[in-house]
UniProtKB/TrEMBL annotation:
Source domain of life: Eukaryota
Gene Ontology biological-process entries: fatty acid beta-oxidation; long-chain fatty acid import into peroxisome; peroxisome organization; very long-chain fatty acid catabolic process
GO cellular component terms, A-Z: peroxisomal membrane
Transmembrane helix as UniProt keyword: yes
UniProt entry keywords in alphabetical sequence: Membrane, Transmembrane, Transmembrane helix, Transport
GO terms for MF: ATP binding; ATPase-coupled transmembrane transporter activity; long-chain fatty acid transmembrane transporter activity
Name of the molecule in the record: ABC transporter domain-containing protein
Length: 54
């Protein structure tokens, strides 16, 4: 995720990237990506991520 925040690509494919962080941190990370206009393709088992995707 640090590379994602530094390079700010147009899109990113994330595979279980938030499995080791709390839901508060997860929300902050995904909110930042939205503000930075980074399109995300996410692979995860957490339903809490659904709200960050259309």
């Amino acid at each position: 995720m640090a590379r994602l925040f530094y390079h700010k690509p147009q899109f990113a494919i994330l595979d279980e990237c938030t499995s080791a962080v709390s839901m508060d941190v997860e929300d902050s990370m995904y909110s930042y990506c939205r503000e930075a206009n980074i399109t995300l393709f996410t692979v995860s088992h957490r339903r809490s991520l659904w709200k960050h995707h259309e």
